[in-house]
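Field log, afternoon session.

UNIT: design team B
ACTIVITY: writing a sequence onto a fixed backbone
BACKBONE:
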């Protein structure tokens, strides 16, 4: 993290800390020296365009991909290159992009798959009821196959399945992808409730910059595998580059200038 960069909300109590990680797809470097922190009980957003490296960050944290360089520390313990099931057992659960549910299992069976590492049956039952409280449609359809759910309902199921692992950090990858504005609003309201009511820290990867900045406490902007800007979300929303390139707002003074000719200040 740059020496003069602002400190994340709650700095000094980082539950998850990523330092200078580099991850590759074969010979192609996807993320280049990325560093970020997720304080305990806070929501942190990573913004960026398609292909910027957002999903790769989450896959590297959750153990799906191994970094070639760098360090990932969770609750004081290094976890880089751990297998995904060990990472999950420690308390990091991942709701992946694209609503990767088990299509031939029922809603209830999908939720139980999220709790497969747990032995506390009473707590598992309580967490399932909590998920049904967040998303009542899942309770109504708990005996239906996941493949019979709509896209929005599958997203609810994906988030709930991750919650069934009793995470201390929840990794959310593009929860708004492909959903209607009404469903996006509903899901992000639940994301805020999860953080507020359960105290779960959340690392949110999202292309919908407006709702991500409204939801999160602190944000990072990634371009071509590098973090190019970071700040509290309330301040990021006031930055000219964020307004124009991510929120679609233009200053009246630049009217008539071609967007592709305008350079971002962080370049």
């Amino acid at each position: 993290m740059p020496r003069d960069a602002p400190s994340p909300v709650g700095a000094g109590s980082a539950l998850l800390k990523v330092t200078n990680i580099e991850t590759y797809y074969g010979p192609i470097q996807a993320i280049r020296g990325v560093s970020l922190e997720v304080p305990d009980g806070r929501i942190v957003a990573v913004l960026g365009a398609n292909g910027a490296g957002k999903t790769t960050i989450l896959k590297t944290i959750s153990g799906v991909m191994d970094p070639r360089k760098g360090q990932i520390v969770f609750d004081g313990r290094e976890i880089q290159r751990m297998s995904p099931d060990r990472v999950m057992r420690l308390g990091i659960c991942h709701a992946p992009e694209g609503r990767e549910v088990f299509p031939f299992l029922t809603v209830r069976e999908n939720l139980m798959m999220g709790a497969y590492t747990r032995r506390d049956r009473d707590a598992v039952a309580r967490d399932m009821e909590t998920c049904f409280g967040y998303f009542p449609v899942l309770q109504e359809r708990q005996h239906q196959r996941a493949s019979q759910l709509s896209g929005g309902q599958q997203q609810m199921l994906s988030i709930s399945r991750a919650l069934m692992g009793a995470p201390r950090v929840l990794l959310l990858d593009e929860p708004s992808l492909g959903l209607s504005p009404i469903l996006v609003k509903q899901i992000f309201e639940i994301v805020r409730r999860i953080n507020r009511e359960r105290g779960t820290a959340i690392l949110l990867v999202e292309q919908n910059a407006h709702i991500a900045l409204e939801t999160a406490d602190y944000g990072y902007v990634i371009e071509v595998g590098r973090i190019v800007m970071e700040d509290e979300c309330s301040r990021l929303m006031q930055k000219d580059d964020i307004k124009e390139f991510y929120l679609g707002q233009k200053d009246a003074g630049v009217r008539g200038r071609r967007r592709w000719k305008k350079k971002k200040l962080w370049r």
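LOG NOTE: Residues 1-5, 253-261 have pLDDT under 50 and may be disordered.
NEXT ACTIVITY: expression trials, pending approval
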